[in-house]
Protein: Transposase
Amino acid sequence: MLSRLIAAFCIIDDALQALGHTDHPQAKTPASAILTLALLAALEFGGKHNKALAFAKDLGLFTHVPSPSRFNRRLHALYPLLLPLLHLLAQVWKNLYQAQAYALD
Structure:
């Protein structure tokens, strides 16, 4: 799970940079971390943001994990970027998993 999460963060961060997205100078948590936390909530915690935020805070995944309220505000502000990035992640994972070879006994 952690390796997928790290890969997702890297892909999202690179995609946001390629799109020219810049965070507000006072933002403590980058947009790529917010979107990665939303993905973590969707994939591992049934969409429960509070559990994903607590998990990330307990493991120290990011330097600053926002409060649930601030997380929701930031996520809603990033909504226009969410669907294209999810589509990009789906394509990347699809290509990665097609490249794997399986041996059956």
Observations:
- Residues 79-98 form the longest helix (20 residues).
